[in-house]
Amino acid sequence: SATFQLELAPSLPLHYELGPVLGEGAFSSVYRAKNTKTGQDVAIKIINKLNLSQKQLANISNEIHVMNTLANAGPHPNILRLIEAFDTDLNCFIVLELCDGGEIFNKIIEYTYFSELLSRHVFYQLLDAIRYMHENHIVHRDIKPENLLFKTIPFNVRSEEDAKAALRASDDESKVDEGKFVPGVGGGCIGAIKLADFGLAKQLKYDLLSTKRANNLKTPCGTAGYTAPEVIHCGVDTKKRFKSSTSRSNYYSKAVDIWSLGCFLYTILCGFPPFYDEDHVVLTQKIIKADFVFLEPWWDEVSAEAKDLITRMLIVNPEDRITIEEIYAHPWVAKATAPEAKEY
Ligand code: ADP
Ligand code: MG
Questions:
Q1: Higher-scoring residue by pLDDT: 86, 182
Q2: What GO MF terms are annotated (predicted)?
Q3: Most Cβ neighbours (<10 Å): which of 54, 145, 253, 320?
């Protein structure tokens, strides 16, 4: 509201002009904004620090630290870019690259479910973001449709030709000048995917400890059933099992993102998540047993390759779960993306 903006004005650098609200998180509001010096449209995440605990404040600095680490490692086209951050006594302002399309979550609701072609277009970009993060020893731990944002393109990704054009456009901002990529067009189709919300992300140095803390932070099943079974278990016995070797514990942490990615792929292909129950206890039981089915008739038309890939991602034991390199080699990914990838 207007009053809220006036209150913030003294602390927000003057060259940013706030626009409408883009989204709300648990402790934050995200606004569209314009840098009046450069004319650049951005998103600003504003976190009011007044009622936050020390732990919550630590999470914010962690989020900024992780995004900085990833930016310094070299920006990746599928990871939301941090532009700058300001900290005042009252608020923290995180200036981010604007994603005019908003959340993939809303696109699933709009389309009901995605075609395999569109699913692959989205999945491949997310896979690239995760590989890049993992190579930089960062685990996201909160991959879900609400935290996947996108930029729009002015045509439908419904045919092979459209998909190829979309891939070219989404990875090449110079296409803006040719009029093929029109930023700021509302209701457009899915172009570049950007992984966002690094509030729960962790660097793997403190692997065992932080994994345990992760559970306290993120109550099991807090987020729509995308939580991996080992995060729910995460008791003494998991800790013992992986204590001996650091590489193993790293592997275990990264596998958490692969599980969520499996839940994500399942969800976009049919429009509902693999694990769901109103009752959290029942939901937890389903997750720890990987108790899911490809429900008829929704899954009848989906390829056997897609189902096989999902089944390999949703394996309870993180040691047996498919790895990111194996996903790239999987027929559903490799066969179809190879020619498109060349066009990048
Ligand atoms: P939280 O950590 O509080 O969940 P998020 O970073 O996930 O906050 O942002 C909350 C919501 O704000 C997102 O789900 C999305 O709808 C919107 N949002 C965040 N960043 C952007 C952005 N760069 N461009 C457009 N919308 C955004
Ligand atoms: Mg979020």
A1: 86
A2: ATP binding; protein kinase activity
A3: 253
Q: What pLDDT shows up at residue 232?
A: 82
Catalytic one among 41, 89, 100, 142? Answer: 142
The reply, when asked if residue 45 is annotated as ligand binding, is: yes
Ligand approaching nearest to the C-alpha of 26: 1
Measured from the Cβ of residue 81, the count of other Cβ atoms closer than 10 Å reads 17
Q: Which tokens in the block code for residue 65?
A: 């630290």
- How many angstroms separate the alpha carbon of residue 218 from the centre of ligand 1? 18
User: Residue 28 has which token pair?
Assistant: 């934050």
- What is the 3-class SS of 180-224, one letter each residue? CCCCCCCCCEEEEEEECCCCCCEEHHHHHHHHHHHHHHCCCCCCC
Please report, as a single letter, which amino acid is at residue 248: R
User: Residue 184 corresponds to which amino acid?
Assistant: G
| 146 C-alpha to ligand 2 centroid (Å) | 6
| Cα 271 from Cα 67, distance rounded (Å) | 30
pLDDT cut 70: percent of the chain above it: 72
Contact residues for 338 (Cβ-Cβ < 8 A; gap 6+): none
